[in-house]
Amino acid sequence: MIGQIRRILLIRTDRIGDVILTAPLANILHQHNPNIHISFLTRQYTSELIKQHHYIDEVISYDDKRFHQGFRGILNLSNELRQKNFDAAILFYPRFELALSIFLAKIPVRIGSGYRGYSILLNRRIYEHRKHGLKHELEYNISLLRAIGIIHDGPISFDFKLSQILQNKWREITSRLKINSNYAIIHPGNGRSAPNLSRNQYQLIIDKILKETNMAVILTGTTEEHDFNQSLIPTHFSNKVMNIAGNLSLIELMVLIRKAHLFISSSTGPLHIANAFNIPLLAFYCPAIPCSPKRWGPYHQQEWVLVPDIKPCNTCELLKCFHGNCLEKITNSEIEIRLTDRLNSLNQ
Hints:
- There is one protein chain.
- The protein is of the alpha/beta class.
- The chain has two domains: 2-148, Rossmann fold (3-Layer(aba) Sandwich), CATH 3.40.50.2000; 166-345, Glycogen Phosphorylase B (Rossmann fold).
- The protein is 34% helix and 15% strand.
- The strands form two sheets. It has a six-stranded parallel beta sheet with strand order 3-2-1-4-5-6.
- Helix 4 (70-82) packs across helix 5 and helix 8 packs parallel to helix 13 (332-345).
- The longest helix is centred in the middle third of the chain and has 14 residues, at 164-177.
- It is globular and about 65 Å long.
């Protein structure tokens, strides 16, 4: 079946981490059909990331706030896709408007979850409940390839290849921000999509890195996270910590992450960017089934994830959590021991 597909559309329109964890399928498809043309439909703010993937030929921006909004937007998208003559489309992030768009575009093979009311719009359905978190999100994505005859159990690679222009941009960014080449990135914010460490826990991590290594610490995040980041900077090491939250575009953050010596955060999209470039990580995750590292952890570095020693919840509601903020249950001693192990590994 895969040998008969000339043009395929991969659809992932949610957050950064979700998009990064879908990108490796392009390599798998290419392995099974070297002549296949692969397009990727994603939101504007993640499209620049996907443009850096070695095996993705075209990126289509999804604009559900304007051009692709409402029923008129569905028609606009379906008309746009119909003109591209896709043989197949895979819907990784199930949404009615996207399923209807590829149906109206008359794409012959339409693949996605069989557990939605609108799954009737798809003609190749995979019956798996992701909410149970029995395997990694990337592996759930790969399961959809069974619909076109691909069973992949080999190695996974992310294959992001920054252009020479972007590689040169790293020098521009570090020069503009006066950053030397020996740095760790700490990304304290996570958009409240999952539990997070406390201010004191981040301060502990920053202090230990500054006392025990020669690395500078760069704090990244959004404009809204700037003040929180600023509160983490110790006065006695202020010259070795730089808060650049809100100062970088997403693609500039990707460029900066690619050269980091260490990346630390809770469950975030930038964590998956770091893992895609094989940057050494230390991550902190809630053990609840919907957001556990088993499903959402850094795919190749699960051994560097620290979770609190508590009974996992079946759901994760930050404002109603029985444990409060469960990541605060991780003791200072646990953080120090794991961070010591991680820092020692950098010298091996």
